[in-house]
Structures are given as structure tokens and as C-alpha cells.
Amino acid sequence: MFGDTTFLGTVMVPILICVARIADVTLGTIRIIYVSKGMKILASILGFFEILIWLFAIGQIMGNLTNLVNYFAYAVGFSVGVFVGIAIEEKLSLGILMLRIITRKDAAELADFLKSAGFGVTTVDANGIYGPVKVIFTIIQRKELLNITEIIKKFNPNAVYSVEDVRYVSRDPFSSNHLLKKDFLGLFRFFRKGK
């Protein structure tokens, strides 16, 4: 069955091209995220394997330029790879976020709860379109965003909050955070040197 060159050319090669593209685009998506987080070594390692796999896939395309199924497999692999890469990145939840919470309601209870949970909290009096507001700033690990937004909704359901990616924090704001646990990728923190 596998000795048949027609079967290999029309079925197996397109499948291999598609799988290779899924793998290399997934790695590429994650690599770009690592680059944006300043994780140079990890991004470089992923880049090596990404290009190695890509060379295999493009080599198969170039070996048979007349087979349109190969082109289709290449395109399908690319789009599925983007989806898989983003899904994996969402599961990894890498990075640090700055959360800005704006509320017209008294924010003391929410701020006290966040402080008791080990989060650094800064509150500022401000003026919004409808009058005085409180603005709460806190820095969190990205994987805690869902938990924190649930806490915000519990204490101040009408609060407006925004989230920003933070590339660098001058010191570890999570050392006393009771809601967070160490993760495997924390082992690679020493790779984040430099801007």
C-alpha cells in the first residue's frame, strides 16, 4: 500500500505537509508571544524547530509543484496552526497584566480584599464623566485575570476595568500573593533579562 507512489503523492504527502504546517505555525505563534514577553532564549529555540519543520513542508511542495492538493494542505495547515497556537498560548496564560478598575461605588472593600489576597493595590481619586470615581491599579499574573474579574463583579458589579500587557516589572509583585501558584514556566524567568 505505502509502496504505491500515487498513494504517497496524493494522500500521504499532503497529510504530512498539513501536519508540518500545523506544527511550525503553532511554534511560530508561541515564539512571537515569547518574543513579545522578552523571553529571548525560549523564542530562539522555538524558532529553530519552527524553521526546521517549515523547510520540510516547503521542500515537499517544491518537490511536486503540479500537485494542487499540496497547496491546499499547506494553506489548511497554516490556518489550523494559527488557531492551535493561539489556543495553546491562552492555556499557558503567560505574562503580567496591569488591571485598572474604575468605580463610582466606594472601592475600599474591593481594595482591602485584593490587599488581603496579596495583591499590590494603588487607589487614586479621579473625576469621570458623571463625577468623582476611584481608580484602583494592580499588577497581576495573566492566569489570574478570570479570578480577579469575578472578584471585581462580586464587590463592584458596575465597575469598569481595563487590562494592559506589562512587559517588565521592577520587582516581583507576586511574592505574597496567596491566590497564585508557581508555574513550570517560572523556571525560565532568568531568560527574561534585557529589554
From TrEMBL:
Give the record's membrane topology.
Answer: Multi-pass membrane protein
Localization terms from the record: Cell membrane
Q: What is its main location?
A: membrane
Q: Which superkingdom heads the taxonomic lineage of this protein's source?
A: Bacteria
* Residues covered by the DUF5698 domain: 29-86
Q: Which key words are in the record? A: Cell membrane, Membrane, Transmembrane, Transmembrane helix
**Which is one Gene Ontology cellular component term of this protein?**
plasma membrane
Q: What is this protein called?
A: UPF0316 protein JW984_03580
UniProt source species: Candidatus Zymogenus saltonus
The upper taxonomy is: Bacteria, Deltaproteobacteria, Candidatus Zymogenia, Candidatus Zymogeniales, Candidatus Zymogenaceae
